[in-house]
Request: fold
Amino acid sequence: MTTKQIDYCIELAHTLNFSRAAENQFVSQPTFSYQIKLLEDEIGFAIFERSGKGASLTPAGMQFVSFLTNMREDLKRAIEQGQNFSSKYRDNISVCIIVRQALYFLPEAIGIFTKSNPDTQITPIFRYENGLESFLKNECDILFTLKEHTKQLPNVTVHDIFTSRIYLIAQKDDPLAKKNIITESDIYGRTLMVGGGSPNALKAVQHRLIATGKIEYFNSADHDTTLTNVAAGCGICLAPGFLNDHSGQFAWIPFDCKENFSCVLCTHKDDKRTSLNSFIELLKRLYSEAVAFPL
Reply:
């Protein structure tokens, strides 16, 4: 299967007309039709039904083109990234994080690092899920995670970066937003959103609050859904400080509890690059020098 055949197949799925699809791809119709037939012969099933009126996708073809379209977009991004890299850089350090704000000082670190290492590219990779699996497959060089998730990881070096506490998130005009710290009794009678892939420390606090029988609660699918519900006035929630985007949309008030999150960076033990170590040390320094920065 060639990239040209992939492009032809996707184009025909859009137009459902051989002549128009061939014209859009700047080839003759016989050449276009021949490449589609070669593709179908290779994969072993018909993608299109032919008729005098044009073409239509078979059920198998419909599913195939859907996967093919996603694959083509990934391939396009890979080619573009490769072109960018080859024209300017000699090395690349990829950093896998769940969301941009999880490493608040990452943009600052990239800016400082690239001034002294102009031939090294820092590539953020955002994986809200499956980031650990991606790291273990060597698809990234640095992984942001919680220390509790690293206990049995093989051939990994763990770098402590910062400790994050638990905050209560509420609308800015909520009476709770006027407090400097939130205690358990402050949220009695309120609706607390829970779940959404909460880390273990946060789950422990949520369960403790639910066990009082003095709050209402409902399950939320993920953090973005939770924030949407907070914005809609449907409830309040607790969250790790490292998820704070510091946009000022919500009030983030420290919650009075002993639980916190040990945030770390993981690297592969056999990756001895000086540039990698320098970048890790730079991030650690930025966090250690931060004064009164809410984490």
Q: What stands out?
A: The longest helix spans residues 59-88. The radius of gyration is 25 Å. The chain has a mean pLDDT of 92. The longest strand covers residues 156-171.
